[in-house]
Design brief:
Layout lengths: L1 E4 L5 H12 L7 H9 L10 E4 L5 E10 L2 E9 L8 H15 L4 E4 L10 E2 L3 H9 L3 E12 L13 E5 L5 H11 L3 H11 L7 E6 L2 E9 L20 E9 L8 H15 L4 E7 L2 H6 L3 E12 L2
Parallel strand pairs: 4-5, 11-12
Antiparallel strand pairs: 1-2, 2-3, 3-4, 5-13, 6-13, 7-12, 7-13, 8-9, 9-10, 10-11
Helix pairs in contact: 1-2, 5-6
Length: 308
């Protein structure tokens, strides 16, 4: 067994290995693989590795990312025919060393920008055992929620003066300023990426009160310029699939029921596009979304490790 840098990877071969092992539950597309693991600026060369057998065939890989002191293992995979041979342990070691060389002092599994998972999927038991043995500590759970709304969804009744509308492109800067003030960080960066990729605003629902933005929800479907987290696994479904999230209400307006109204409006806008299945990704608000017709679909264990 030998290990080489990720930069020599062929995305089609990596995608094939992924689908051979977990494609039945998480079907990978080459375009998504390239978007998240090849073209993303936070992928770290010396933290991302390929494992090749004696015939130079790909049997495992790991992708590491970093931003400042924060590091992430986006994904680690070893072909089921080559497990329990120390390959996963070696890949983790190589990636951790590379992340530490880049100044990282804490590593999370998943949760990276353009992540695949917000943790380790609960059904990947071999991976759960590997990371626990490697010193990663579990600190909770995250869920994806799924709802079937084939019967359609109506726009909710809103309080006087409150509206929900798709973002007009000319208000792009107003949205970015709103996000920067109220939700700085990742959500701003993802919105900026969206517009760089040619987004025109149809993926952002904005809630206003008296003309002032008080909330937003991102709504995604197959026409979106970026494959977003809540539409990653659409090949699993025969029906049209859309996703909702992230979303948020300004702090001073929380507690007024606007969050629920915003989600209902997002569901209605997707329904108008013919979307029948809707996914909410990376949430702990299981009871909240159950009230709106969603059920838990996927469960993830969250893990992290201090490497100072």
């Amino acid at each position: 067994m030998h290990y080489i840098h990720w930069e020599k990877a062929d995305s089609t071969i990596v995608t094939s290995l992924w689908n051979k092992n977990i494609g039945e539950t998480f079907p990978m597309r080459n375009h998504l693989m390239r978007q998240n693991s090849f073209n993303h600026s936070q992928v770290i060369k010396n933290a991302s590795w390929l494992a090749l057998n004696e015939n130079n065939e790909l049997v495992g890989f790991i992708v590491g990312k970093s931003s400042g002191r924060d590091g992430w293992i986006q994904m680690i995979m070893v072909d089921e025919e080559y497990r329990h041979e120390g390959i996963g342990k070696e890949l983790l070691k190589l990636s951790e060393e590379g992340l530490k060389e880049n100044g990282v002092n804490n590593i999370a599994l998943g949760k990276d920008r353009y992540h695949y998972f917000p943790g380790v999927p609960a059904n990947l038991q071999d991976l759960q055992r590997l990371v626990k043995k490697s010193g990663y500590e579990s600190d909770g759970f995250e869920y994806d929620m799924l709802g079937d709304f084939s019967a359609g969804v109506s726009i909710p009744t809103l309080p006087a003066g409150v509206t929900c509308e798709l973002l007009p492109f000319k208000q792009k800067n107003a949205l970015l300023e709103f996000l920067q003030i109220n939700f700085p960080g990742r959500w701003v960066e993802e919105a900026e990426d969206y517009f760089i990729e040619g987004g025109q605003g149809r993926e952002f629902l904005i809630m206003k009160d008296g003309g002032k933005i008080i909330g937003f929800a991102r709504i995604n479907d197959e026409k979106s310029p970026v494959i977003f987290q809540n539409t990653y696994w659409t090949p699993l479904f025969d029906k049209k699939v859309g996703g909702i999230g992230p979303l948020g209400i300004v702090a001073e307006e929380r507690g007024n029921g606007y969050g629920e109204k915003l989600v209902q409006a997002a569901m209605a806008f997707l329904s108008e596009r013919g979307i029948q299945k809707i996914i909410i990704d990376w949430t702990t608000l299981v009871s909240f979304y159950k009230r709106l017709g969603f059920v838990p679909w996927r469960k993830y264990n969250t893990y992290s490790k201090n490497v100072e």
